[in-house]
Design brief:
Layout: E1 2-5, H1 24-33, E2 44-47, H2 54-57, H3 63-71, H4 83-88, H5 103-122, E3 128-131, H6 153-163, E4 168-172, H7 179-185, E5 191-198, E6 224-229, H8 235-253, E7 257-261, H9 279-293, E8 297-300, H10 309-322, H11 342-362
Parallel strand pairs: 1-2, 1-3, 3-8, 4-5, 4-7, 5-6, 7-8
Length: 369
């Protein structure tokens, strides 16, 4: 059984209209995935999950932060909380994280969706599960909102799996480094976090994190992996770096379950970043992950601000990760990818090779590679 974990209670429908995050992306992905014309919609089961409990959220977030999220989850809440107090927890009316009505309950539902997906796959009740509204919260920190994220649903799910005796590999495909997830498990050798992203030298969340020499702390040294890509990196450079690092580490770490964040903002037409990936590379990486994961695989959404391309990318990744035929029309949008000249292609490959060399020197020996 292939699970699509989604429901209206997981959609931040009260997000300000001017905000770049468009929650309808998840609804649009569901429409594509369950369209009878794709030939396999009957193999997909849609479920609305239970809400995560405060105990679930407290595995990774401070109680004071959870309380502030709840205080800000009502209409006009910013009029009752000082701007300084709200900013201390990462919220402001005009920043990346504006409070909105029902914010706390929606964030709990998304986190509950990730836990439910992991539970069903881990227990053998589902072959694969996808939570399209998840993943975008990967910047949220233990006591602060960040980068559109409120409750870090990926981290909530990972902590649940870890606390139930599982070794977890988290792979973040978002164009922005998965800094919140990494920070929450940087010292934990039971969790291997891997983020392949546009270099933080050029893009949020910024250095010093996210570079290839940022590899975790204490007993978790070597269990945080960052693969920074130069601006304008294309399919060739990105896929080469992925193949050099991810399959060997997955094989050495041997996770009980793999959680992949399917950020679609490395797509070449995304307005918030500078990588040049096409839909094809998302399908290729999904097929590769399915082949190495042994069926213990859960996917969540993430970034993606080209509202036409993101649902299409997620639908094609769902098919590839579930081992279903990928509908060819999803691979060819109306915006052809730019091509790099020889000099630019050489430069992005040189940066990719430098990152890979650093990781092979610092991380691979930790894993016996």
């Amino acid at each position: 059984m292939n699970l699509l974990v989604h429901g209206p209670a997981m959609i931040a429908s009260h997000m300000p209209e001017s905000h770049p995050l468009k929650p309808a992306r998840a609804d649009d992905a569901q429409s594509l995935i369950t369209d009878p014309r794709n030939g396999w919609a009957e193999l997909v089961t849609v479920v609305a999950p239970p809400m995560a409990t405060d105990m679930d959220i407290e595995r990774v977030h401070d109680r004071s932060y959870i309380a502030m999220v709840d205080r800000l989850s009502f209409p006009g809440a910013m009029g009752r909380v000082s701007s300084g107090e709200a900013k201390r927890f990462g919220f402001s009316s005009h920043g990346d994280n504006p409070p909105y009505p029902e914010m706390g309950s929606i964030a709990r539902n998304v986190s509950g969706g990730v836990i439910h997906a992991l539970q069903q796959v881990a227990r053998g009740n589902a072959d694969f599960a996808f939570v399209p509204s998840g993943g975008v919260n990967h910047h949220a920190m233990p006591a602060t909102a960040s980068g559109f994220g409120v409750f870090n649903d990926a981290a909530v799910g990972i902590a649940w799996a870890r606390d139930h005796g599982m070794r977890v590999m988290y792979l973040d495909l978002d164009v922005h480094q998965g800094d919140g997830v990494e920070a929450m498990f940087a010292s934990d050798p039971q969790v291997l976090t891997v983020s392949i992203h546009e270099s933080t030298r050029y893009l949020f969340p910024g250095p010093p994190g996210g570079l290839a020499n940022s590899i975790g702390t204490g007993p978790g040294t070597g269990f945080a992996v960052n693969i920074p890509m130069a601006p304008y990196s294309d399919d060739k450079a990105w896929m080469w770096a992925f193949e050099e690092i991810v399959p060997p580490l997955h094989g050495a770490f041997r996770p009980d379950i793999t959680l992949v964040q399917c950020g679609a903002d490395a797509y070449h037409a995304d307005p918030l970043a500078h990588l040049l990936l096409t839909e094809n590379v998302y399908v290729r990486v999904a097929e590769r992950l399915r082949s190495i994961s042994g069926g213990r695989l859960v996917a969540i959404g993430g970034g993606g601000y080209d509202v036409e391309a993101t649902p299409r990318i997620w639908a094609s990744m769902f098919a590839a990760l579930a081992g279903l035929p990928v509908n060819g029309i999803w691979l060819h949008g109306p915006k052809p990818a730019p091509t790099l000249d020889a000099g630019a292609s050489s430069r992005v490959m040189d940066e990719a090779k430098a990152a890979v060399d650093t990781l092979k020197e610092l991380v691979f020996p930790v894993h016996g590679l």
